[in-house]
Write a structure and sequence with these properties.
The complex is a heterodimer of chains A (363) and B (152). Chain A folds into three domains: 73 residues, no CATH class; 191 residues, no CATH class; 30 residues. Helices cover 40% and strands 15% of the residues of chain A. A four-stranded antiparallel beta sheet of chain A has the order 3-4-5-6. In chain A, a hairpin with a 4-residue loop joins strand 4 and strand 5. The longest helix of chain A is centred in the last third of the chain and has 28 residues. Chain B has one domain. Chain B contains four helices and three strands. Chain B has a three-stranded antiparallel beta sheet. The longest helix of chain B is centred in the last third of the chain and has 29 residues. The chains are: A alpha+beta (363), B alpha+beta (152). At the A-B interface, strand 1, strand 2, strand 3, helix 8 and strand 4 of A face helix 1, strand 1, strand 2, strand 3 and helix 4 of B.
Chain lengths: 363, 152
């Protein structure tokens, strides 16, 4: 018998009030503002924008505040918000070669034109807790030097002439959009990149790490890593020409991978590509490694059966909102489901006992 | 307000780029100083939406969808007939309205004054901010030097 039950409204209301109170914490402490989160927790804001798949630092900061710092909950809020926005259109592909670089390094070319620019990096810090930050804060002013005014060329450009690195021929094929149509397999590289750039940082990192440890080994060097702002342009139908509608901060990673050649390709360097909203260096390197591993078929490599080569496995599990939704729903009331399972197990036990008892009686 | 000759696409694009990217408080502060408050009618009231930002595989290859950004847009017409469009990054309806008014005024005899009091100072402020970041980046550029080798 199915019995519909209703109840819990009062408990739910009170739970949400308590949540609001706990979110605020002690009222003896000054409340966090959105601007403080945006400016001082900017890498958390960047992660929420990347995985929420919406570039808007103020909204991401609000989501972090509302989620009490639970970044996956914040990403969930952003994803829910973005579904309410009318889509004005698609931008012209951004030109990362024109990026105003805050940071630009190469692990392969020491003397790359434009130089090795470290930017505001955690690299080379000693990872020792800085108790000065706890005591009296920080108002360090960064030194300045003669600014570079011309764009910084991509490092892959320099190898192109030699034909020793696999080319990325420009096309204007319309890419699929997984916010419009659900992912199908086999997929395409543009769809894989869209999925990876909004994928969970921890998941993508883990998959990338597995390729380094020997599962679908493809020995990557960071050919180039750059962080900075690029202009976003879009065609405006009422004007009849394209204008800049804003700018976004991006982290781009291009890996250079050893490649012995295959049935279809000569020996040359191949590439993996990572591009992520905000300053998201770990994510963008990880994305590039996973992108490269997933390209085995197109490059005529062997399928080694490694998880990172299995696009259905990688892309179906990279989205932390899908994952958390399915995972966490099992804590919600399943009373009726469980009742029927309980009945079933009791019945099976009864039947098993009945089978045993007459046998014993006969002996 | 009287019409001017139609601006070229390149001219109009230049000021619309500045208006789209300008920090809201900077644009509003400059607009407040300008005494012009032309009457207008909405062609499209301000609305907030998303634009899907595209990039290219390996930076030069096939396009792919990277993620969305927020944009606010509106269109209006001044009494004299000049049509202004506002397309600005973010979710500010007041900023989109001012951008559309400025776009419309830039097509009238007020253009020189608007350029001098809004577009040029905004453009300068944004260029200064960009140059300052580039200067900080330049200070973190690695200068390699070769150590004296033992056998020399």
């Amino acid at each position: 018998m199915y019995v519909a039950v209703k109840g819990g409204e009062k408990a739910i209301d009170n739970a949400h009030s308590w949540l609001a109170e706990e979110r605020r914490g002690s009222t003896d402490i000054v409340e966090l503002s959105i601007a403080q989160i945006r400016e001082q927790l900017s890498l958390a804001v960047n992660r929420v924008m990347a995985e929420g798949s919406l570039f808007d630092p103020d909204l991401a900061a609000l989501a972090i505040k509302q989620a009490r710092g639970d970044l996956i909950e914040a990403i969930f809020l952003i994803r829910a918000y973005r579904t309410t926005l009318p889509r004005f259109g698609y931008s012209i592909p951004v030109q990362t070669g024109d990026m105003a670089c805050d940071r630009r390094i190469s692990a392969t070319f020491k003397d790359a034109p434009g130089g090795q620019v470290l930017g505001p990096t955690f690299d080379y810090t000693h990872r020792l807790l800085d108790f000065k930050l706890a005591a009296d804060g920080n108002d360090t002013v960064a030194p300045m030097a003669g600014p570079r005014t011309e764009p910084t060329p991509h490092i892959a450009e320099f190898l192109k002439g030699e034909d020793i690195i696999q080319d990325e021929p420009t096309s204007d094929d319309l890419p699929g959009d997984l916010t419009r149509e659900p992912m199908e397999f086999p997929s395409t590289r543009p769809l894989r990149l869209q999925s990876l750039t909004r994928g969970d940082e921890g998941f993508v990192l883990g998959m990338a790490y597995s390729t380094q440890r020997g599962y679908a080994r493809n020995h990557a060097f960071v050919g180039e890593l750059r962080i900075g702002k690029v202009a976003v342009e879009m065609d405006i139908p009422e004007l009849g020409f394209a204008i800049e509608i804003g700018e976004v901060e991006l982290t781009e990673c291009e890996t250079v991978n050893q490649f012995k050649g295959s049935k279809t390709e000569p020996p040359q360097f191949t590439r993996g590509y990572g591009l992520v909203f905000g300053q998201s260096e770990r994510k963008s390197i990880a994305m590039a490694l996973v992108d490269r591993a997933l390209r085995w078929k197109e490059l005529g490599e062997d399928n080694l059966g490694a998880p990172a080569q299995d696009e259905e496995f990688v892309l179906s599990h990279a989205d932390n909102i899908q994952a958390t939704g399915f995972l966490e729903h099992i804590k919600l009331p399943h009373y009726v489901d469980f009742q029927s399972e309980l009945e079933l197990v009791r019945k099976l036990r009864r039947e098993a006992e009945e089978r045993i008892t007459p046998k014993e009686a006969a002996e | 307000m009287a019409y001017l000759d139609k601006p070229t696409d390149a001219e109009r694009r230049q000021w619309m780029d500045v208006l789209a990217r300008a920090p809201e408080d900077a644009l509003m502060a400059l607009w407040d100083k300008v005494q012009l408050r032309p009457t207008f009618e909405w062609l499209r009231a301000p609305e907030i939406g998303g634009v899907m930002v595209r990039a290219r595989t390996g930076s030069t290859g096939a396009p792919f969808n990277l993620g969305e950004m927020t944009v606010t847009r509106c269109s209006l017409v001044l009494q004299g007939g000049a049509v202004g469009h506002g397309y600005v990054q973010g979710r500010s309806k007041p900023k989109a309205e001012v951008a559309a008014l400025v776009d419309a005024l830039m097509q009238t005899t007020a253009a020189d004054a608007i350029r001098a009091e809004i577009i040029s100072p905004l453009s300068r402020q944004m260029q200064d901010a960009r140059t300052k970041r580039a200067a900080k980046a330049a200070a973190t550029k690695v200068e390699f030097f070769t150590l004296v080798r033992g056998e020399d």
